[in-house]
Amino acid sequence: MQSTPKGMRLHIGFFGRRNVGKSSLLNAITRQDVSLVSDQPGTTTDPVEKPMELLPLGPVLFIDTAGIDDEGALGEQRVERTRRIFDRTDLAVLVTDPEEWGAFEESLLGAFSDRKIPVVVAINKIDVVPPSAEIEENIKKRKLQAVSVSALTGVGLDRLRQALLDTAPADFFEQSVILSDLVGPGEMAVLVVPIDKEAPKGRLILPQVQTIRDLLDGDSWCVVVKERELRDALDRLNRPPAIVVTDSQAFLKVAADTPSSVPMTSFSILFARYRGDLVAQASGARAI
Q: Do residue 166 and residue 202 come from a single domain?
């Protein structure tokens, strides 16, 4: 099975000044050495990405960024690369140390607010000193979701993970369906999957796997066949399927073997509906 595309993952960006522990915090959350860590400010130069599963959200993409307060000619380029990540971010983690809150943090909050990006404030390094009264007052005044953590000791990491789940955009919990709404509970779809030299050996491609899972989630069921087996499979069924789905390359062959009374479509069309506006795409195709 192929890895989940970036566009189907919740993008969680870690932002803040240099040396507040963004990279250490990301490594602690993922339990992996994703980002290079050192005491030298500015160690992270380019955005670092780590795809993983964050249950019950599902697939996410963590993004570690350079410090927003970086200096010099190279520093300005790093800051610009960090700012580009804003437009790819679905959920922002603003990392700060317990004693410093100022213009940089305020500018980040403004950028997130302008883009309607939800924010979790992670007050890191509480193993060194507790959060200052000023920081706690700023967070309270703005009604921000905030967690005190220590990337070094692990204190607060579970609360931070829960805060990410609580703050994530609702539409990532309410994903659109792929096919199950067209089939219905207790009904069947036939999936026609060509197996040729172009197909990855020993596995199905991701859209096919996702379609099968979507049918199972919708209490539907499916039969998966190759294109040359479709006619025999249909003959063996005691009632016709709700729909036949195939790959675009086999459409003509499958259409010839599918009864006219059975609806038919392709994986490409299903995913155009799933990830976009199928009506608008159809109107555009007619216009062309």
A: no
Are residues 29 and 60 in contact, defined by beta-carbon separation less than 8 angstroms? no
Same domain, 153 and 187: no
Same domain, 28 and 124: yes
Which tokens is 135 given? Answer: 């920081």
Whether 1 maps to a domain, the answer reads no
Angle (nearest 5°) at CA 280 between 286 and 194: 75
Identify the bridge partners of residue 224 per DSSP, sorted by sequence position. 191
Cβ-based neighbours of 10, under 8 Å, separated by 6 or more: 54, 57, 58, 59, 60, 61, 90, 91, 168, 169, 172
Residue 134 placed within a domain? yes
pLDDT at 120: 97
Let me know whether 160 and 201 are in one domain. Answer: no
User: 67-81, 229-243, 261-275 — which is least confidently predicted?
Assistant: 67-81
* Closest to 24 measured CA to CA, from 163, 154, 160: 154
Query: How does residue 2 score in pLDDT terms, banded at 50, 70 and 90?
Result: very low
Please give the residue range of the domain that contains residue 280: 180-287
In a shared domain, residues 193 and 166: no
* Model confidence at 269: pLDDT above 50: yes
| In a domain? residue 159 | yes
Residue 205 has pLDDT above 70, yes or no: yes
Q: Binning pLDDT at 50, 70 and 90, where does residue 279 land?
A: confident
- The distance of Cα 272 from the centroid of its chain, to the nearest Å, equals 18
pTM of the entire structure? 0.66
Looking at the structure, tell me whether residues 195 and 58 fall in a common domain: no
